[in-house]
Design brief:
The chain is mostly beta strands. It has a single domain, classed as Immunoglobulin-like (Sandwich). The protein starts with a strand and ends with a strand.
Length: 124
């Protein structure tokens, strides 16, 4: 199952923030013997932008995720997730920064629970 996360700007916040669409558990990666690809795709009002950076706020153990790779046109990013045992299960919070129209925007991720825009990758 592809794990595609649509990335747009939330214009209801001041300043605007990056919104990662995780509906239908798009951020959940089931256990599998083979590495699975996670893709972030700029979408809607962010489609003309570029992905700038990805940073873990709760770092996963090494060996689970590859270093993210941003596409040559900058509008998507992929990373492999090797969720192949109980030891690779977990929930890791990250921050994503994009540029749209010459301005930089980020998710409002924090390691505090209860935040409204707290994007994560969850290995089940």
């Amino acid at each position: 199952m592809p794990n595609t996360l649509n990335v747009s700007l939330d214009e209801n916040t001041t300043p605007w923030t990056v919104d990662i669409d995780q509906k239908n558990n798009a951020n959940h990666v089931g256990q599998n013997g083979a590495a699975q690809t996670i893709t972030w795709q700029l979408h809607g009002n962010a489609a003309s932008g570029n992905i700038i950076s990805f940073n873990w706020l709760t770092a996963p153990p090494s060996g689970i995720f590859t270093t993210p790779s941003i596409s040559s046109n900058g509008n998507s990013m992929t990373m492999s997730d090797l969720n192949n045992s109980a030891s690779t299960a977990g929930d890791w919070i990250y921050q994503l920064t994009i540029e749209v129209g010459g301005n930089n925007y980020s998710t409002t991720a924090s390691t505090t629970t209860g935040t409204t825009n707290n994007p994560s990758i969850k290995n089940n």
